[in-house]
Each structure stands twice: as structure tokens, then as C-alpha cells.
Amino acid sequence: MSGVHSPYTPKAAWERWLDQRLPLPRFVHGSFIAYPVPRNLNYAYTFGGILTMMLAAQIVTGVAMAMHYAPDTALAFLSVEKIMRDVNHGWLLRYLHSNGASFFFIAVYIHMARGLYYGSYKAPRELLWVLGCINFLLLMAIGFMGYVLPWGQMSFWGATVITGFFSAIPLVGDWIQQLLLGGFAVDNPTLNRFFALHYLLPFMLTGVVALHIWTLHVVGQNNPTGIEVKSKTDVVPFTPHATVKDLFGASAFLVVFAYFVFYIPNYLGHPDNYTVANPLKTPAHIVPEWYFLPFYAILRAITFNVGPINSKLGGVLCMFGAIVMLFLVPWLDTSKVRSAVYRPWYKLFFWLFAADCILLGWLGSQPAEGSFVLMAQIATLFYFAFFLIVMPVLGLIETPRRLPNSITEAVLGEKHG
Description:
The protein has helices at 13-21, 24-32, 47-66, 76-85, 90-118, 126-148, 153-164, 173-181, 188-219, 238-263, 293-303, 312-332, 344-364, 371-397, 407-412, and strands spanning 36-38, 235-237. By secondary structure, it is an all-alpha fold.
């Protein structure tokens, strides 16, 4: 599907004038109207559009709140309260932004799971996948820094604990930690740094997202069969077919999002974060936001002095290694078949992996003691085994089901193939 030219023909004089100097209407028509997409895309493929919508919403609400926020340890908590109580519709801005972060990650995890399930990382889409992983890494940085800004108890102590782990890195660890903090402890310079980066990084994320979408339009979209487009009958125009499906999927997503915003806006937050930060009073149980819990569980599984394994550096390496694994997926999977629909053993291990990630998330919310640490170590072992053992070995020994001859055959049956 790469290299498809738009059939757009400017009619009015001003359209022809603009098309000769800045062919923006032609670009939009070719990318979002006439662009051919596989005819068998399901609702799992709507989350790319949902993510674009959520990114725009987060930037708009974030910029609006930044006009009223004070990045000072003496004023930050009060400025958030002022936004909630005194700024016109400030409560709505904050609830949209804070819950929007959670729903952004929900959409990201579903988007990534769909890519793993249908093999959207395989050639020629390796760069598309890597750019998506860069987006995920940037989003994690944005989310972590944004969590610190309200300057509540969990904001302060979460930043203290997480940045403290950087000191475990040999030679440069202390330097990295002090660079992040702007000193030797979480204080005013830290808050200023995090606010500046939290404001800047979303625009960098937008740039990488643009590259991600551009790459998608060059290599073409994958589909549930994992089979490449072979004829015109395999594709349909993006508008209205994919557009209507995306709008319906986004509408359903927004209904759930709106329920959280208007009825249970604090459900996904931590109660301790509604108390102003106190460096002299440590919370009973320090946890990050829910979307970091699987990686936090991996970190603690290796770091805490409970169970057979204990290494602060090992915990940090495993936490970052869990993200690095995602970047390496296109080269770890040795199977010639893309989609798990036709790979019975890979499908089984994929759902075990999904359950393992949920288990890690739950373990990350529990105290780092007793059986919880041992369970986290076992779950961490399976996490890495999925990438380093299951993916390479299954591709060599698994016997996949018969693939259809074309996307059309998969949709309409063999007689139409």
C-alpha cells in the first residue's frame, strides 16, 4: 500500500493555487480519506485514533492548567486547590487531565497488546514498532513527572523513591540522580525541572507520533490475518469505512472516560496525594500510579532484601530491561507467521503473558514483604522468559494453522479468494 497517490483533484481556483504551493488538502485527502486500509480491521485497531485524540486532549487541558499552576514547593499544592475551587471550570480541567493520563495508558496498553497479538512488529514494520516504543517511553516520563506536580504526599515520596534508585547505577548514578533532582533531595529545583519537562515532552511526543503515523502510511497497515494486501479487493478507503469505525470506538471509549470524570474522578488516584507533601512523614506504603505498577513490581522483586534475590542495581536493570525487551521484539520473534490467530501455542502464551502483566500490576500495589516478593520474582521471570525464550523458540518449533490466500478469502470465504 506504500506509494499510493491521492486521486484528489482541486476544482476551485483557490484550491489549485494552494495545491501548487502547499498541497495540504491533497495530503489530508491521501492520508485520511482515500488511503486504502485492509477490509478486515476490527475494533482493536481503533486505539491508534483514540490515542491521537487523547494526546490532543491532554495537551489542551495541560496548557490550560499550566496558566494557573505555580511550580514552587510552597505554592504548588495550593495552586492545584485554586485550580479546583476558583478557576472557571478548573475542576473539570484537572479531572479531565488526571483521568486522561490513566485512560491514555489504558489505550496504550491495548494498542501494544494488539500489536503483539497480530504481529504488527514484523518486517517491514520494525521501525513502526520501535517508534511506538519510543512513544511509550516518552509517555512514561511525562506521566511520572506529571504525578509529582500536585506536590502531595505520594507525589513527593514517589519521586524520592524512584529517583533514589538511579544512585545504584555504577559511576554515573549519583550524577544522574543529582541532575534530576537539582540537588541532593527532592525539593524546589526538582519541582521546577519536572514542570518544565512535563510541559516540553508532550510536544516531543507529538513529533514522534507524527513519525509513527508517517511510517505507518509508508509500510501500510497490518491486519488480523497478518497477510499483506494482494489486490484491490483486500482494501477499502479509509473514509468512510475506518473513519466510522474509529468514531464509534472513540465514542464508546469517551463514554467510559466521562463516567470516571463526572462520577468517580478520584477513583484512580491515591488518597495520600490529597495531603500536602511532608518530608518528615513517610507514608505507610509508597506506590506510583497504577500504570507503572508492573514495572515497579519488577524493580522491587529484585531490589528488596526478601527472598533469594537481592540487588538494588539488578532491580534497576530489570526495570529498564523490561522496557528494552519491547524494543527488541521484532528480532526476538522468529516465526514467519504474524498473527496469533494462526499460531495456537503463541496465542496461549500471549494470554498467559497478559495475565502475568496484570499479576505484576497487582503485586506492585502490595507491600514488599513475604510471599508477595516471591510471587513478583516468579512473575518477573516469566515476563522475561516470554521475550527471551518463548518468542524465539516457538517460532522454530510451532506448527501454525493454514493461512488464507488473501484478506478477501479470510473475510468472505475461500470461493471469493
